[in-house]
Amino acid sequence: MTQTLINPTPKDYKSEVKPTWCPGCGDFGVLNAVYRGMAGLKLAPDQTVVVSGIGCSSRFPHFLKTFGFHSVHGRALPVAQGLKMARPDLTVLAVGGDGDYFSIGAGHLLHAALRNIDITVVVMDNEIYGLTKGQTSPTSPQGHVTKSTPYGLLASQFNPISTVLSLNVSFVARGYSARPKELAALVEQGIQHKGFSFIHVLSPCPTFYHTFDAWDAAVTPISEEHDRSDRGKAMLLAMETEKQYTGIFYEEKERPTMDQAAHQLVQQSKEFDIAAYMQRYA
Ligand SMILES: Cc1ncc(C[n+]2csc(CCOP(=O)(O)OP(=O)(O)O)c2C)c(N)n1
Ligand code: SF4
Ligand SMILES: [Mg+2]
Q: Which ranges carry the Pyruvate ferredoxin oxidoreductase beta subunit C-terminal domain (predicted)?
């Protein structure tokens, strides 16, 4: 039976499991924003599923009263998409880190983007592998010195927003963990958006890569004048390197989703006669 909450508060989405993140971890701000966003939408916890991969950020589902699935490194998206295809009535979020989505899970991100299944993705980007103690990730800046790159990272830096814009994602936004109210509003809008919603969150790891000061200085809200239907302009904002723009870069409201299209097909189709079909090969 659906557990409807009349006037929920963020606390109503908190589980009994206390977050095990280091003090000051940016992921606390993201968790608070998700609690707020869920309360704002009055989501029924038993009709909501939060799926993650592996990493510090991927511990997320344990701290929510919703259903959760702590899956395998880089594999949150296959689980989340399968779930939404089978149960389109549920609200499905996929969460995790930059390693999870842009390294081992990058192939899944690409194809999920093209499918436009109605799920909301929240990537907590600390530009580092936190759980495994500070190796570089695809979003680490070139030249970054870590235990895994003692002479500085030679590869160039991955740009999550320009990448998903190029993949025609229908809702693209960025938030900052230190601004949970703004982030909560993005989470609400991402969940309400019908289609694949991608929310990139700057979420520092003070233990292995302290980026709070740099991001406090670089974070710049996107102007109210920005036309969210203009993908070219969104791309220019995404390519900006000095500033880290936050807010909604791009939104396309009327794109059909794959989950809707597949369910229509199932409703329209007659029972498939497998014996008649196999006659072709007899
Ligand atoms: C198949 C596989 N390869 C490698 C690992 C080791 N591993 C666990 S978490 C992780 C990276 C986590 O980084 P990120 O996704 O950015 O999450 P964060 O800890 O920074 O939140 C790696 C490489 C693993 N668990 N499974
Ligand atoms: S290691 Fe970094 S990402 Fe992991 S919990 Fe600690 S501060 Fe957060
Ligand atoms: Mg990370």
A: 205-264
Can you give the pLDDT at residue 189?
A: 98
The tens digit of pLDDT for each residue in 87-120 reads: 999 999 999 999 999 999 999 999 999 999 999 9
DSSP string, 49-109: EEEE-SSSGGGGGGGBSSEEEE--TT-HHHHHHHHHHH-TTSEEEEEEEHHIIIIITHHHH
Average pLDDT, the chain: 96
Pocket of ligand 2 (CB under 6 A): 21-22, 25, 27, 56, 126, 130, 205-208
Q: Which atom of ligand 2 is nearest to the CA of 21?
A: 5
Question: Given this model, what pLDDT does residue 97 score?
Answer: 98
Block mean pLDDT (10 aa), the chain, length 282? 85 97 98 98 98 98 98 98 97 98 98 97 98 98 97 98 98 98 98 98 98 98 98 98 96 93 86 89 92
Q: Whose CA is nearest to atom 8 of ligand 2?
A: 25
- The CATH class given to the 10-279 domain equals alpha beta
CB 230 within 8 A of CB 169: no
Determine the distance separating the centroid of ligand 2 and the alpha carbon of 23, expressed in angstroms: 8
pLDDT 10s digits, 154-189: 999 999 999 999 999 999 999 999 999 999 999 999
Q: How far is the CA of 131 from the centre of ligand 1 (A)?
A: 6
Atom of ligand 2 minimally distant from the CA of 22: 6
Distance (angstroms) between ligand 3 centre and the Cα of 44 equals 29
Ligand 2 atom at shortest distance from the alpha carbon of 20: 5
CA nearest to 128, candidates 120, 139, 118:
139
Q: Which of 54, 101, 137 to mutate to test the pocket of ligand 1 (most atoms within 8 A of CB)?
A: 54
Are 157 and 163 in contact by the 8 Å Cβ rule? The answer is no
